[in-house]
Amino acid sequence: MESEWDALRALGMFTAVCLLLWVTWGLSYTAYVHLLPQARRGAPWLRAHGAWAVVTGATGGIGRAYAHELARRGLNIVLISRNLSKLEHEAKEIERLHGRVTRVIQADFTGGLEIYEAIKAGLKDLEIGVLVNNVGMLYVPHMMKILDCDNVAKRLSDVINCNMMSVAQMTAIVLPQMVTRRKGVIINISSVLDRRPYPLLSVYSASKAFVRSFSQAVGAEYFSQGVIVQTVSPSIVDTNMTRPMKFQQFRVSPEDFARQALDTVGLTSQTFGCLSHAIQSVLVDLFLPSWFCLSRWGVKFLFLFGVYSTKSEKAL
């Protein structure tokens, strides 16, 4: 009997040591990525990958902020989005504020393969050092079951094309020249929802899980050839997509987020973008574990939360 207790004590001590090491590693890694300015690569390192940066979904939110921050760090910018007037406005703003050369390409990423030949032609002969796959969309205005939204087939097609196909096709267009030059950075904007299934946001979270998986795999394939692929999984950033949501006190401005997230390039292949979002992710995992969210009680809770948030927003 004594030997059995000794074995259990040894197992308990081993488990405690493993947990302590895991927590220590997590805290140290977080401090290294987010809190040590001397570890950052800097603008010259980023510019050394190529003269141009390409940003999709570049006329608002995170994409616009990335475009301006990359220009501030000395790169010329190709802005790709569907609204030509907004594209031209942002291009002029970048030239005025940062003194960089710009180019615009109009494209609606809810379309199919037919849109990418024009994009490929527009990027021809440019030395592209950074690609930011940012464009993305929700298929519902708030949390709901998949069959409760209008025109289900069209919405599903739009989300798959915009959130998933755009990442794969833009990577396929830009990656060959990066491999040839043996340098380049691909930044794929995902979501904090990419790590597990989320009922009532099923298609959106699944599309972001694709982004995360695709980024990890391509990054492993081409790391030895000098190409860096980073997945950025933000929580709540103050954009048009997130404004219907509650908890405004947890939001980060797109400008602050892009600046902090770009500081992590070259330090980590997966990031929440900023320290506050890393903390938010830990809290969500702690208070809304996956097993609960996928249970019938979890779905009811998320549904009630979504209804409450929407009604509260309408009351403002």
Automatic annotation (TrEMBL):
<dbReference type="InterPro" id="IPR036291">
    <property type="entry name" value="NAD(P)-bd_dom_sf"/>
</dbReference>
<dbReference type="GO" id="GO:0004303">
    <property type="term" value="F:estradiol 17-beta-dehydrogenase [NAD(P)+] activity"/>
</dbReference>
<dbReference type="Pfam" id="PF00106">
    <property type="entry name" value="adh_short"/>
</dbReference>
<keyword id="KW-0444">Lipid biosynthesis</keyword>
<comment type="similarity">
    <text>Belongs to the short-chain dehydrogenases/reductases (SDR) family. 17-beta-HSD 3 subfamily.</text>
</comment>
<dbReference type="InterPro" id="IPR051019">
    <property type="entry name" value="VLCFA-Steroid_DH"/>
</dbReference>
<dbReference type="InterPro" id="IPR020904">
    <property type="entry name" value="Sc_DH/Rdtase_CS"/>
</dbReference>
<dbReference type="GO" id="GO:0006694">
    <property type="term" value="P:steroid biosynthetic process"/>
</dbReference>
<dbReference type="GO" id="GO:0005783">
    <property type="term" value="C:endoplasmic reticulum"/>
</dbReference>
<protein>
    <recommendedName>
        <fullName>17beta-estradiol 17-dehydrogenase</fullName>
        <ecNumber>1.1.1.62</ecNumber>
    </recommendedName>
</protein>
<keyword id="KW-0560">Oxidoreductase</keyword>
<keyword id="KW-0752">Steroid biosynthesis</keyword>
<dbReference type="InterPro" id="IPR002347">
    <property type="entry name" value="SDR_fam"/>
</dbReference>
<keyword id="KW-0443">Lipid metabolism</keyword>
<keyword id="KW-0521">NADP</keyword>
